[in-house]
Specification:
globular; four-stranded mixed beta sheet; 287 residues; Carbamate kinase; 14 strands
């Protein structure tokens, strides 16, 4: 690209930078973007640039592969109930150690080493996330929680200091479950946090292009979708299987007052910047 081309890119980004400056964007970080070294570096660069131009970034992360790897190293087999991982107390200890420890601090270090400012924490810190035991269909899947409240005080303090909160999805028990610690779904945590902060956007980084009209054709990407249109796609089967939890989290965010929700392909370098700062975007935007 020549200098004139670089200038055109910057000029195209200018109205978006102006629009989002001072606004909150919650990013759910997961999939290949957490595993591939090149993609990790690109995500950190995107987050730091977004922060430098005045966007308030909250990063919520998962860590399923790392948890699975640690369980395997300890000789512990995973057990699933109706497709959901059963989390006994020993597994919960591993989840807390891996998510709140190694994964969270590795991401925080990446941001700091790339020239940004970040603070790693989990839902336990400042009682940020409160949850009760999740019992799908009345069943028991152990120490898995559903979030019932979000305390944004610590997040607001970090954001006010110009840093990026890096949040792992572990929550404190409440009500009858006070004193317990729960593993909570990271996508849901991102949606709940975005709603509690009154975020402008929630962005889910996934390993798919977005919502497709035809799952076998990546060229059938739906770029913009209304909340009601999303429900119609669920009813007619266009959205199915593993995409349903993703779109449900987008619905949760929109219904909670978040301006827009995005599902983007984290396998593509600088997907965050392309989605936020270009006219064409890269994934599906739900409004």
């Amino acid at each position: 690209m020549d200098n004139a081309g670089r200038a055109r890119v910057l000029i195209q980004a200018l109205p978006y930078i102006r629009q989002f400056r001072g606004k909150t964007v919650v990013v759910k970080y997961g999939g290949n973007a957490m595993i591939n070294a090149g993609l990790k570096a690109a995500v950190m660069e995107d987050l730091i640039l977004m922060s430098y131009v005045g966007i308030r970034i909250v990063l919520v992360h998962g860590g399923g592969p790392e948890i699975e790897g640690m369980l395997h190293a300890l000789g512990k087999e995973s057990r699933f109930v109706d497709g959901l991982r059963y989390t006994d107390e020993e597994t919960m200890a591993v989840v807390q150690m891996v998510l709140c420890g190694r994964v969270n601090k590795d991401i925080t270090a990446l941001i700091e080493n790339s020239g940004g400012r970040a603070l790693g924490l989990c839902g336990i810190d400042g009682a940020m996330l409160r949850a009760r035991q999740f019992r799908p269909g009345g069943g028991d899947i152990g120490m898995v929680g559903e979030i019932v409240s979000v305390n944004t005080q610590v997040l607001e303090q970090i954001l006010a200091a110009g840093a990026i909160p890096v949040v792992s999805s572990v929550a404190l028990g409440t009500e009858a479950d006070t004193g317990k610690v729960f593993n909570v779904n990271a996508d849901t945590a991102a949606a709940k946090i975005a709603a509690a902060l009154g975020a402008e956007k929630m962005i889910l980084m996934t390993d798919v292009r977005g919502i497709l009209k035809d799952v076998h054709d990546e060229g059938s990407l739906i770029k913009v979708l209304s909340r009601s249109g999303l429900e119609e796609l669920k009813r007619n089967g266009t959205v199915s299987k593993g995409m349903i939890p993703k779109v449900d989290c987008c619905s949760l965010a929109i219904d909670g007052g978040v301006g827009k929700a995005h599902i983007i392909d984290g396998r593509l370098p600088h997907a965050l910047l392309i989605e936020l700062f270009t006219d064409e975007g890269i994934g599906t935007m739900i409004e």
